[in-house]
Structures are given as structure tokens and as C-alpha cells.
Design goal:
Length: 470
């Protein structure tokens, strides 16, 4: 789904369109503005391939054309064929708009007309019903798993400040007063919202320690999230930091059974300095260009909520098993039974009528697609609730809600989800399974997990989710 389109026509003529879904991305629009503006120089020439950069768990694509270049920000990756077709379709429409808005009889380029027509053209590309849903769930057998994240980077990059603001809920002022970490600091933090313990390793970035870390293979085993902090205000450090990350990532890849997610926080992007940091962002992205395929980039500061948001988004995708388990615990079945099923009660009663099952077969793909969209909205709303809890804006108690209607069995790499059917309440098993399958797939899409299969059908339908990261 399109989040933003930017058309760069040179001479400071830049036209941007934000979809209504941009508000669901849990990122300050000013950060998107700063990132796009800083990367104008990255706009490729027409003879170059499409350029790709991960930003805040979204994908930015750039493509050059004769009269302009396009930058897209979308909420999930697109394959090469789809992407090429998308750009060509946009280009054809924009070319028509440019002709219709071009000077006639000595007139000037009508920017307002162009922008109005552009917005009208793009709106259909951003239509996607988003339904906020709540959650709950059930009895489970759970193997205790303790996720491990590592905060690393050069000294004075701001790692410890980010850690204390998020895990200890320190104020902005207090977080900025932290002293540099000496050596490696290991700590256990209980995340109230996740109801889960997380091991956090904060690695001091002084040069005397960096080589020592790279000699200790055990330090890098079993990592779920590697978060590399870069001081965006210090461009002289970019190349040294990149070389350090190259050595680090090589070692992590060697010793890990599964690679962790990699996030690069371009930190100290302080509000009062943002206009002066555009060149630095471009330099930083260029310095770390070898990690475009591996890393998500974030602009962060402890002076607002951006560092907390970045950590929520990084952990959301780094700990899919823990997060998905928690998503299901928070009233999922209650919502499904009390909100979703009643909407389909008329369909359930008619499916027993002669000939109506044929109609159901014709519309079931549409039903499932809508369920996928609702599930995706559920995943996104979870991030917002997490932030509200972290910022003290939510007074709800995020407790486990138990039910004998669901059994969850989680280990390191797999989750088995067994949910009862609703035949005794008059709902055909085919309908309830179809809806649940779509909802679960939608949630997993927000976690970048595509492995979902039904492994058993009886009084309970059982799904298996594979969280193994390649």
C-alpha cells in the first residue's frame, strides 16, 4: 500500500502525496519529510535500476525518468516485476498530467492544477479498509523464551540514552544525562506490555573494547535484534562506524543459526537541528549502502518519542513469536466471537439453503481478503497501544485473558494455534475457518511472517506458524 509518493522535478519543484494510511505507520511525518528531502540527491538517472532503501520497516523505492524522478514509500516490499509495472503505470499517468498542466500561449506551469489532478489520480491506489480491532485469548502451554537484543555502535552515539528511555521510562532530560557505557552491560528488563522479559546488551563503543567484542563469538550467539546506533551529528564517524558494523555483521552471520534483524538508528536527529542535518543523512545512507538489503533505517532522538517508536517497530519485527503470542492473548477470540461472527450470521444461516453454498464459493475469496485486511489493522494497532502504554497514556491493564476456546503452544521457532469451531452456535466450520485463517494471515503480514498452514481439523482447527528466520 502506498504511504507517500514524491515527484522531484528539479529546481526545488517537489510534489508529495501522503495517503490516509500514513497515519497508521506510527512515525512522525516530519521524519519522513526529512528523510525524503535528504535523499533528493539519491534520485537515480533514467538509465539506472530502481534503488531500494528500508526505512522504519517500510520500503522506499527510487526511479529516474527523463523529466523527473519518483520516490515511493510503501508498507511492504514489492517484487521486481510488480515494482517495474507500478513505476511505469505511475509514469504514464504523470506524463499525461504534465502535458495537461504545461504552459499554453505564454502561460506558466500550473502547479496547483497539477497537484490537484495528481492527488485525485493517486487516491484509488491508497484505498484499503482499515478497521481497528481489539483482542483476547486463551489457555496455553508455553516454553519460556528470553529474547536477546544488542545495542551497539561507536562511543557517544547515544545507545545508553535510548535504552534507559525505553526500558526504564526515563524522561528526555534524564536520558540525555547518561554516562557512556564502559565495556559490555548486560541487563534483564521486564516489558509490562509484552508481559515478557528481554535481555539487553549495551556495548560501550570505545575503540579499546571494539576489537575485544569481535574476538568473543559467544557474545553474538542467539541474538534476536541487532540495533546499531550512529551519531547523525558526527559525519566524520560514519566510515569508521560502517567498517565496525561490517566486521560485526560478518561475525554474527558466522555464529548465528538464524540471523537477527538489523536496525540502524541515525540518532541525535534533534528537532532544532533537523534542517542542518539533511546533508549528514545523505552521507550516512551512502556510508551504509552495503546494508540496504539487510537493515531498516530510522531517524531518532530522545528529545521526542521517535527513539521509543523505532524500538517498538524494531522489536515488533525482531520478536515475532513473542509479539504474535501476545497479540492473540489480548482479546482476539472475544473480538472474533462478539464482533466478527455476528456480521456474518446472515450468511451462516443461508449456507444451509439449497444452492446458496455455490454463492458462498464465489464470494469466499473476497471474504478472506477482507479478513486479511482486518488482521493487518490489528497488528498495526498493537504498536500504537504499546507506545501509549510506554508513554503513560494508557490506563488499561494488559493482562492475559484465558479461554478454553483456544490453546497456544509456543517454542523457539513454532507456534501451534488451536481454536474451536462454532458449529454449536450455528456457524459452518468452513466459514469460521476461512475468517480465522484470513485474520491470522493479516496479523502475520505485519510481522513479515508468511508461514501459516492448517495442520489439523476436528473440534478445534490447528494452525502452525513457523518463525524461523533465514
Amino acid at each position: 500500500m502506498l504511504i507517500r509518493l514524491s515527484i522531484d522535478m528539479g529546481e526545488n519543484k517537489v510534489f508529495s502525496f501522503d495517503s490516509t494510511k500514513s497515519s497508521e505507520t506510527l512515525i512522525d511525518s516530519q521524519l519522513i519529510d526529512g528523510f525524503f528531502e535528504s535523499l533528493r540527491s539519491y534520485s537515480p538517472s533514467p538509465d539506472l535500476a530502481i534503488q531500494k532503501i528500508k526505512f522504519s520497516n517500510m520500503m522506499m523505492y527510487s526511479k529516474g525518468f527523463e523529466q523527473y524522478s519518483l520516490q515511493l514509500l510503501v508498507d511492504e516490499p514489492m517484487d521486481e516485476e510488480e515494482l517495474q509495472s507500478y513505476f511505469e503505470g505511475l509514469s504514464d499517468k504523470i506524463d499525461v498530467l504534465l502535458v495537461s498542466s504545461s504552459p499554453l500561449n505564454g502561460s506558466v506551469f500550473d502547479e496547483e492544477t497539477f497537484k490537484a489532478k495528481l492527488e485525485k489520480m493517486l487516491i484509488p491506489m491508497t484505498q484499503d479498509p482499515i478497521t481497528t480491532i481489539t483482542k483476547t485469548l486463551g489457555d496455553f502451554v508455553k516454553q519460556e523464551i528470553t529474547p536477546k537484543i544488542v545495542l551497539t555502535g561507536l562511543n557517544q552515539a547515544g545507545k545508553t540514552s535510548i535504552k534507559y528511555k525505553f526500558f526504564e521510562r526515563w524522561s528526555e532530560a534524564l536520558a540525555k544525562e547518561t554516562k557512556p557505557t564502559t565495556g559490555a552491560d548486560f541487563s534483564h528488563h521486564f516489558q509490562e506490555f509484552l508481559l515478557h522479559k528481554i535481555v539487553v546488551t549495551d556495548l560501550g563503543g570505545q575503540s579499546v573494547y571494539r576489537n575485544l567484542y569481535l574476538d568473543q563469538e559467544d557474545l553474538w550467539k542467539g541474538i534476536d535484534a541487532l540495533i546499531f546506533i550512529v551519531d547523525i551529528q558526527n559525519p566524520e564517524s560514519f566510515n569508521v562506524a560502517n567498517n565496525y558494523l561490517i566486521d560485526m555483521w560478518r561475525l554474527v552471520s558466522k555464529v548465528s543459526e538464524r540471523k537477527p534483524t538489523l536496525s540502524i538508528f541515525m540518532h541525535k536527529y534533534d528537532p532544532k537541528m533537523r534542517e542542518s542535518l539533511n546533508t549528514n543523512i545523505t552521507k550516512c545512507v551512502d556510508a551504509f549502502k552495503d546494508f540496504n538489503d539487510h537493515a531498516n533505517l530510522y531517524l531518532t532522538t530522545v528529545e521526542d518519542s521517535s527513539s521509543n517508536i523505532a524500538l517498538i517497530k524494531a522489536l515488533y519485527h525482531s520478536l515475532p513469536g513473542v509479539v504474535f503470542f501476545r497479540l492473540l492473548e489480548l482479546n482476539f477470540l472475544s473480538y472474533f466471537q462478539n464482533e466478527i461472527l455476528p456480521e456474518f450470521s446472515h450468511l451462516a444461516t443461508r449456507m444451509s439453503i439449497q444452492g446458496y453454498s455455490d454463492i458462498f464459493q464465489e464470494i469466499k475469496l473476497e471474504i478472506r481478503d477482507n479478513a486479511v485486511k482486518i488482521g493487518a489493522a490489528y497488528g498495526l494497532s498493537f504498536q500504537k497501544q504499546w507506545l501509549a502504554h510506554l508513554m503513560g497514556e494508557s490506563v488499561s491493564k494488559y493482562e492475559k485473558t484465558l479461554s478454553d476456546s483456544m490453546i497456544l503452544n509456543l517454542d523457539n521457532d513454532h507456534l501451534l494455534i488451536s481454536i474451536k469451531n462454532w458449529i454449536d452456535q450455528g456457524f459452518p466450520e468452513e466459514l469460521t475457518t476461512l475468517l480465522l485463517d484470513g485474520l491470522l494471515e493479516g496479523i502475520l503480514k505485519t510481522l513479515k511472517i508468511e508461514s501459516l498452514e492448517i495442520v489439523e481439523r476436528n473440534a478445534y482447527t490447528t494452525w502452525k506458524v513457523d518463525f524461523q528466520r533465514k
